[in-house]
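Consider a concrete sample entry:
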Amino acid sequence: MNIIEKIKNFFKSAPAEICKPGFNAVEKVISAFTFVFDCIYRILLEFSKLVILVIVIIVSCEVFGRLVLHKSIMWSEELALLLMVWTAFIAMAIGVEKGLHISISLFFNMFPKVVRIIITKINTLATLFFGYILVVYGIKLATMTMNSTLPATQWPAGTKYMMMPVGGVFIIYFALLDLFEAKKYRHLAIEGEAGADKTDQQIIEEMRASKNEAAVSEVSEGGENV
């Protein structure tokens, strides 16, 4: 199946993906809203993979040039740094979506359920505010630095901060879904994952359970052999 056929099939399946069974009129509107954001997010994910690949190629060429050819690519370090900044802001949004950011839960788990819910909501609001800061000041920073140029590539300096508001928008998006517990309206199948209906935490728990079962079976087999 070529790319054109995939795009055609995608648009054919879009109405069924948005208007899922059991959704009322309001839920269908929310589903359509999340569908657009999830599509853009999928493009952002593919773009981030391309950015990482380009970083690896640039750095590898620079190392080869210095060690073998004894020549340096003048713009390689600057461009690699720019792309790493882009990757960092994209990774922030991915971390919010997947719940991958570092957290200390030792004392959190000791609190009553009601307190844990309140703390979680406060944490989500703080994440939402952080995304807002990235959007507002990211746009200002990119706009203010567009008149200056980078020394090696001669690109506008504002290009370095272009992904700052983009990452902020998706941080706000995922934070709002967490705040209103609206993850059921997401369209994870767009990401093309086989286990799109499962959360990362569920997948991790399944992996741990399978490891525990394997360990128990090994212990039982060892006891039988004895």
Q: What stands out?
A: The chain has six helices and no strands. The chain has a mean pLDDT of 84. The first helix runs from residue 3 to 18.
